[in-house]
Specification:
The chain contains four helices and eight strands. It has an eight-stranded mixed β-sheet. The two termini are 16 Å apart. With 150 residues, it is α+β, with helices and mostly antiparallel strands.
Amino acid sequence: MLSRIHHVGVAVTDLDESIRIYRAAFGAELVHRAVNEKEGLEAAFLRAGDGEVELMRPTREDSPVGKFVAKRGPGLHHVAYAVTDIVGALAEARAAGLELIDAEPRMGMHGTRIAFVHPKSLGGVLTELVETNTTAAEIGRALGSEPPNE
Ligand code: CO
């Protein structure tokens, strides 16, 4: 069901400074940056191997990320896993008794369907499912590394 870790979400208060640090310290490449007015955040995605880091800055104090930062301060916000069939993955998660934040998939910032699972179902970790038809093995081949067994 989960094909790989797709990205890790990190809440920040200064997006430009956070991007600068990830670039300076790790040579991370900025792949995408956009404001999501509906969710009240600005996000920057930086490449980390075959995964990404999503740095998120709240644009409003009353947005979900704004409330998170007000309550806990900047820090790890969510973990996102890639799935090839998000409708099937949500059905399996529901059948396993997980509480879903999104009963139906919605469009994420990469133009693919996403859904969130409530942190209380997964040990306090807000978990995002991202639909992608690209498997870790395919990404490995694209990056020039062959998986040991497939
Ligand atoms: Co995310």
